[in-house]
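Hi everyone,

Forwarding the result from last night's run.
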Amino acid sequence: MLSMLLVEESYDQKKQINNKSHSLHSSVDESHTALSSSSVREHPEAYKSYSKTRSVHLTVFDKLKAWCKVHNKIMKSVFLTLLTLCSLSAMAAETADEQNEHSAITAGWLENVIIEPWKIKLRAKLDTGAKTSSLHALDIHHFKQDGVPWVRFHTEAKKDNDRIENIELPVKREVKIKSHHNGFSIRPVVELEFCLNGQHYKSEFSLVDRSNFNYSVLLGRRVLKQGILVDASSTFLLSTTNKRCKQIVKTVDE
């Protein structure tokens, strides 16, 4: 829109300048025609004065013409610069929309999440100090399906003792984690979806036995950057229920 307005304004200015130039040139030509007649040539002083005036007019006309060329180059450069900036701005906005499709929310440092599509409710710690999220996983078993590495595992909610049997997912990658006591460990990483506050998120989770931790899920920065702000002084600010998550899924499907 800005580019179109700039083009129209530049065109109008150029048209006005060309009209003025044409008018000045026409005026000079008319004066030359009138003063070149035999009646005027009988008065040498008047013709001499006319010649000086015509020379001044032509000089002004040449300068105006040169200024028009410079003006057009400047306007073209400005137009191309603004067009480039608009394109970059649109690309940045599109990238931002792709990275963050959720409404921004403020969560406590502890929240309940529902792992999809199994509908298991787990307690999650939101940790800005961790990059990759992790999920409590038991009986981790590696296998291949059509030549692609997969993993089978169980998870459970400590509060309700709910157990999900035989979750099978493809392995996205493996991550090397340094432990304070046991050196390094290799964890499989899978991609999971979960529901929080009626919104669905997708991110990578490393699988590990979190029996010695207080919470079954840890949400790291890869998830939090999708629009989740953390209030470190509060817990359970958001309402997450199976019913609300089902309503969101039904709305999306429709």
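Confidence is low (pLDDT under 50) at residues 1-7, 95-100, 248-254.

Cheers,
N.
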